[in-house]
Fold this protein.
Amino acid sequence: VYIELNSNLHTMQNTIQVRLPLRQDRSYAITLAEGTLDSLPALCSSLGKHRAIFIITDSTVAPLYGRPLLRSLTEHGFHAVMLDFPAGEHSKNASIALALQSRLLELKVRRDSLVIALGGGVVGDVAGYVAATILRGIDFVQVPTTVLAQVDSSVGGKVGIDHPLGKNLIGAFHQPRAVIIDPFVLRTLSAAEYRNGLAEIVKIAAALDRNLFRALEQNADALRRRDLAALKRMIGASVSLKAAVVERDEREAGLRKALNLGHTIGHAVESAMQYRIRHGEAVAIGLAIEARIAQQMGLLPENECLRVKSLLKRLKLPTALPGKLSKHRFGSALAIDKKSDGVGPRFVLLGRIGTSVIGTPVPQSLIARLFA
Ligand SMILES: NC(=O)c1ccc[n+]([C@@H]2O[C@H](COP(=O)([O-])OP(=O)(O)OC[C@H]3O[C@@H](n4cnc5c(N)ncnc54)[C@H](O)[C@@H]3O)[C@@H](O)[C@H]2O)c1
Ligand SMILES: [Zn+2]
């Protein structure tokens, strides 16, 4: 299947609607604006009657944005409580999820309670998973605070936790009631976390939108300088593409698989490094290596393969397997990948930049070369 979409880079609005054709009642708005975090209490009121609000966040975001949000919700008359867990991917597991579920039950969570997932992709995935499972599912709002979460993970309703056997193996589809993207909160992000999120923008552009990829090439220096206007345009473009994909294929039956570009290798790298590498960095490595595989299979022209690698390098992202990678672990992780089916791992590969070919088996000989 060949796939190509186009984001509209020029008519960026502050609100993007995600329309789910089969479940109109679950459609929701994404708001992208500087300072929009301050409007969260008003948004909560507009979502209808929620008896209690539970902010779920991590230990880094709690003091930065959690406490002020808690205060402001309380001032607006909400019964609000904040729960936090230690920051980092190693918290994305069943015992943290169970601890949060236990706290919610002790605090008398009800079907009409609301969860606010305030943080990066880890918080969004864990808090979303908790919201999806507690009492068979309650409402939640995504308030992403990393570049990665703002451009990718907060939209689309995939929530979940990692299992010792692999990443994101336990989870659900649970759409948020709203997504609030405030680029101001990115100011406190470390340089490494900032760069990390850019990898998912490169992914979505490479997979689906040639014009966005060109815009990234043109804006690479501005993005590296953390120019807020350029960044906001790129966030807007990525999010509207992601929304368009989710509208067409909420459950990842086809089109949405294109967003796994770079992730077959990327997840195996993360798992083999036992998560001591950032998700976006692993995805950047995956994008570069999978582009090379596509080129070797005669799908992707050589010059386009080089464009992928050079854009990643300009954004200061890694493009080669880490020296410390255990090849044995990497091999087993590739074998257990969710997208594999006995024949060997299946990949999303680039036909050209902006066009993905989904479900491509890769000859074992090419995989073996990765270990050479
Ligand atoms: N559900 C999806 O569709 C989807 C898509 C892509 C990625 N993901 C998942 O997202 C996760 C990665 O997300 P991430 O990169 O955001 O990681 P993260 O949530 O661990 O955040 C990275 C670090 O930045 C800190 N942080 C967050 N916001 C901050 C801020 N504004 N200022 C300062 N520090 C801040 C966090 O505390 C953490 O230490 C992975 O687990 C990945 O699997 C999910
Ligand atoms: Zn990802």
The first helix runs from residue 40 to 46. The chain has a mean pLDDT of 92. The pocket of zinc ion (ligand 2) is lined by residues 200, 263, 279, 283 (CB under 6 Å). The two ends are 31 Å apart (CA to CA).
